[in-house]
Sequence to fold (190 residues):
Amino acid sequence: LQPALLGAIQERRIGGHSFGPRVRVIGAANPTEQAASGWDLAPPVANRLGHITWPAVNVGEWLKWLSGTEEGSVFAESASVREMKILKEWPAFIGKARTEVAMFIKRKPALLFQFSGGNMSWASPRSWTNAIDALASARLHGLDELTQQTFMGAFVGAPSLEFFNWLGKQDLPDPLEILKGNIQWVADAR
Fold:
């Protein structure tokens, strides 16, 4: 039921039980045509979620991942060690993502709100906020740019492509790398 779903995703509760601050809310669903008694989400509900069409997995790849023998396997380090690293590095990654999206929206304000009329992703202040979290998370976990685009697009749809196109045209170095001393700033002699 959509009201119950809203309770879980918006208020972080189910019935009388509230989720703790460390609980992540993730959902999965089959396409409407493959679901038992399936129905489309109302646009306001759909706007609160990320939508990714996940390809079917290859059995061999899945077994390799499950056994933990794949390079970069999720089983390579304990969850608590990984979480400590994430909490330590999160402020830098979320700060950079927020700044980039803010600069992009300032440059292209019409993309802040673009209702697509469907039951999937569309750009709004709420979905851009979720997209920023998705971008920061993808980068923090070392995911490639195509996956970063997929994660952002899951929340804001097509404007994410324009964001990455705009981002690719920026030629300034990462300010954090300058502050760390990894990049030396050279003044133009003109």
Remarks:
- DSSP finds eight helices and two strands in the chain.
- The mean pLDDT is 83.
- Residues 79-107 form the longest helix (29 residues).
